[in-house]
What we know:
The complex is a heterodimer. Chain A is of the alpha+beta class. Chain A has nine helices and 23 strands. Chain A has a six-stranded mixed beta sheet with strand order 6-7-8-3-9-10, with helices on both faces. In chain A, helix 3 crosses helix 4 and helix 3 runs parallel beside helix 5. Chain A is elongated and about 75 Å long. By secondary structure, chain B is mostly helical. In chain B, about 75% of the residues lie in helices and about 0% in strands. In chain B, helix 1 (about 10-35) crosses helix 12 (about 255-285). In chain B, about 30% of the residues are buried. At the A-B interface, helix 3 and helix 5 of A face helix 8 and helix 9 of B.
Amino acid sequence: MARIDLDHIRHAYGERPKSDADYALKEVTHTFEDGGAYALLGPSGCGKTTLLNIVSGLIRASEGRLLFDGHDVTALSTQERNIAQVFQFPVVYDTMSVYDNLAFPLRNRAVPEREVERKVRETLEIIDLADLAHKRARGLTADQKQKISLGRGLVRADVNAILFDEPLTVIDPHMKWVLRSQLKQLHRRYGFTMVYVTHDQTEALTFAENVVVMYDGQIVQIGTPAELFERPRHTFVGYFIGSPGMNVLPVEVSGTEAKIGAERIALPGLPAGPLSGTVELGIRPEFVRLGREGMPATIAKVEDVGRRKIVRAAIQGRDIALIAGEDEEIPAEPRLSFDPAGINLYADSWRVELGGRP
Amino acid sequence: MNKTWNNKAWFMVLPVLLLVLFSAAIPLMTVVNYSVQDTFGRNVFFWAGSEWYEQMLHSRRFWDAMGRNLAFSFIILAIEIPLGIFIALNMPRKGWGVPVCLVLMALPLLIPWNVVGTIWQVFGRIDIGLLGRGLAQLGIDYNYVRDPVDAWITVVLMDVWHWTSLVVLLCYAGLVSIPDAYYQAARIDGASRFAIFRYIQLPKMKRVLTIAVLLRFMDSFMIYTEPFVVTGGGPGNSTTFLSIDLVKMAVGQFDLGPAAAMSIIYFLIILALSWVFYTVMTSYDGEN
Lengths: 358, 288
């Protein structure tokens, strides 16, 4: 396993990119630590698969350097980089048995047959397919095929990292859970460096210790699930993570006070820097309180989602979502208040620290 | 679950049944009819039983033509299938080259068979043909009218020129349907060019190849127009295939009985061989 450094990586699919907009991946500098489990999270077309393919060498980045454990591998081929990758749709060699599928990468590298046998047996145990070793790979279910894809990576002793490109897309929902926890277990037991691309926040948040959120070809935030939830660095992270996403309201700020229309909201601290461009206040639905105190609101809709309710309300003509408990009553004259712990301030979509004392 | 039987539905297929009856079943029955009767003209027929069949099956002429047919089918399959796969593998997958290649490949398929025959008949002529004169200039003794080997080479070349495209197009369709992830996975697994062909491309082409082999076999086994136009079955009988012989017998000599018996045997052989091909090539699917 290895540490992977991305050093000023940029990539454009077309030749001769003219402006920033031509780049599918805009300048990424990031380190995947040795033995870490990372999720690359973002909407379709945000560049996450591009980034993954650059790491595995399927795509050669237009600019920048890639280092494995400090060695420059930018010019090396996929095979020389020694990477394992699991794709969205299971890739198995139909005509071969499960055993031969796993042996394939080793045989291609002219590993002696006795060593192949030992490694394949070991890998079959890890991925839990030992009973099917001599079955033809074609007849298996999608999740078993996906395990074979994974196994073809694990069978090589010295892979630098295991990359996953939305590996659970075609798996049945109940098997998704099983596979995901098996992956986590693998990571804990063997300490592989794993990078997992997904657009599903639940998948990302449960799989990884570190979630890298990408948006429009850039990394907008790297953090633990809790950090992403509580302190989104960019309004996009706020929208994208959480269900429903963060409420973002345009405000005017003076001192420690924010104004939405005629209403005033106390901020937990002074903005750390000067505020320029569009200033917005972000608050997650979990931090909005419904009661008899605070700002008068109108309620448009209450969605009962089981253990809790999602309330769609409006203050000063601005839509706002909030979470209420299952048994919580909705007052006749509802008022809303914001928990100061959940208030974030954004200038031109980027978060501004609220640390200063008044 | 209980199915509802609706016998009225049979009326729906009646028009098709009638059509097939008139286009296939009745013509076939007239052939069967001829094959068991004899005539001395004036439209008077009498029962001959299996006489024509026995005569056919003991006829040297029939078995020689059959041998030539089998040899021809075998040779063109041995050339067209590997060549077709090879060309399909080397055709571009994207860019402006794709439509250009596809159109070029489709061209020979669009030319009527007798025109193909005429093209090669002229092409190979030693007095005015580009191929014939060119070879003569190079000092190669080539004459498809006189030399049986040259005649065979010409007929085989013509078939390869005419029909390899079909194999190419079928294989190409199979190849482009392989998702990119397979090639990417193969690169990650360190597969060689040959391993990619053997374990990814060939298995994915298997189905279309089955169709290609079947079509080319049936077509080449029934070949008539092109060799008839080029060589007329000669020199001697060296390129007289079953179909050519059949027409000679039925239309030339007006031996309706033997010709009908031969048609039936010919038909059954094609049916049986195609079935064997198909069963062998698809038996693999039945495993597991």
